[in-house]
Amino acid sequence: MTRLQTVARTVFFISDRTGITSETLGHSLLTQFENIEFNLVRLPYLDTPEKARKLVRLIEDAHAHEGQRPIVFSTLLDDEIRVIVSRSQALMLDFFDTFIGPLEQELGVESTHKVGRSHGVGDFAIYNARIEAVNYALAHDDGVSTQHYGAADIILLGVSRSGKTPTCLYLALQFGVRAANYPLTEEDLDRDALPSVLIPYKKKLFGLLIDARRLQQIREQRRPNSRYASPQQCRDEVRRIQQMFRSERMPFIDTTNRSIEEIATTVMAETGIQRQHF
Amino acid sequence: MTRLQTVARTVFFISDRTGITSETLGHSLLTQFENIEFNLVRLPYLDTPEKARKLVRLIEDAHAHEGQRPIVFSTLLDDEIRVIVSRSQALMLDFFDTFIGPLEQELGVESTHKVGRSHGVGDFAIYNARIEAVNYALAHDDGVSTQHYGAADIILLGVSRSGKTPTCLYLALQFGVRAANYPLTEEDLDRDALPSVLIPYKKKLFGLLIDARRLQQIREQRRPNSRYASPQQCRDEVRRIQQMFRSERMPFIDTTNRSIEEIATTVMAETGIQRQHF
């Protein structure tokens, strides 16, 4: 494939701490410029003036090499470090610098300017709750155990490979939500009724649907040329599970074109489940 | 405990899509105002003018009830929706609106203004790689299988309850990194040498250390009054694993006061492992 060769523009994501906020921010913005090639550089834990001066040299090198100034997305709380970086030639878009002023004015107080509160350990009890949610998801993955369904915030149902496991883990890690999942097997679908173990928890059930062709594609990668991955089998399971979701009047969503983040946040929005921690 | 009762100020996190960006942003900023109480409301998938007008009514109600105007953190790409919300009385801090202009000017092109690229499914191959990383982490959790260590990006070592499992899952879900973990047992520590199964992968090993008192606290919650949770046992394991990390010249970090995000991003920064997807 031939294409017009242009020099990619270097973009730095920098932060005093994890860099998660500046990457999230910066990436959201860059996706709005589809036809431009970027060279992404992540520099978390930029927490000393020495590191800041080293970054300035990287910025100068990239500028000289590419003939266009780099872009810096940053969340820097330390004034000294921010001043060093802002004296470089880069276009610097600093998230704190931009929004903290209007917020201080609105709230009538000064900010604490403490580094790294947003992804830190925070309260020990909240931290534990999150780890417990992960342990819960692992213990109740794929119907392994149905013993503590009473403690679940939600129980996801779907055919094998419809996205249940990653969604449960994401709900636990990101939001501290206790999510179990139950794989509906062929026998369950043959009976055309909810497995009896699920009946007491009907209000917690949420279905994940998936397009049969996409399902087939995913299963084929996993077990090539198997009955499990055959078009007929996938179509059949999808058709029957959709029937069950409808006849049981369960809420469900189609996961086919949704990312894990989208599935998880949609499930939360539709059920009203709240995140348990930030 | 008595404290001055003030009315909490309502803060809305709104978005066309998942709301992850506006929550991350807004939360980072709010943590800088420790003594102010906020009433947090999340409204993802705010994607119709009707929903926007409903939000405006919520803003007006909160304003009237609390006597101070709400704060809105938003990432709205749809102009019509943004205009409706911006006409409310809230202090609106819109992330796209603020930064997209300077970026368009710098890059010399208009942004595509497409909704929800940042947490969407994106490229199918990349999506699969991420799911495969989650499956890998699950299959190689807690030394369950050491069969495919050759495919690991990293192998975490640590005593039981030092944070290995959540860190591996976070690395997989958030960054598409293949992370295995191996629990060093008492017998491993008694031998004071790396288990032979790990020796071929020495360059991939990374140690997680934890403070003995914190370890004891965590284990006590899990198995109260057990030998496993006794102060003596925890001190002993921690001391010996630290010895092993040192004698094997392995990189390691202390997880005691670090969140999962901090452990994961520090491991990546120290080893130079790159994220496999955004």
Automatic annotation (TrEMBL), chains A, B:
Secreted keyword on record: no
Keywords of this entry: Kinase, Nucleotide-binding, Serine/threonine-protein kinase, Transferase
Gene Ontology terms for molecular function: ADP binding; ATP binding; phosphotransferase activity, phosphate group as acceptor; protein serine/threonine kinase activity
Recorded superkingdom: Bacteria
E.C. numbers: 2.7.11.33, 2.7.4.28
Binding residue positions for ADP: 158-165
Entry keyword Cell division: no
InterPro entries with a match to the protein in the record: Kinase-pyrophosphorylase, PSRP
Family: Belongs to the pyruvate, phosphate/water dikinase regulatory protein family. PSRP subfamily.
Record function comment: Bifunctional serine/threonine kinase and phosphorylase involved in the regulation of the phosphoenolpyruvate synthase (PEPS) by catalyzing its phosphorylation/dephosphorylation.
Protein name: Putative phosphoenolpyruvate synthase regulatory protein
Organism encoding this protein: Thioalbus denitrificans
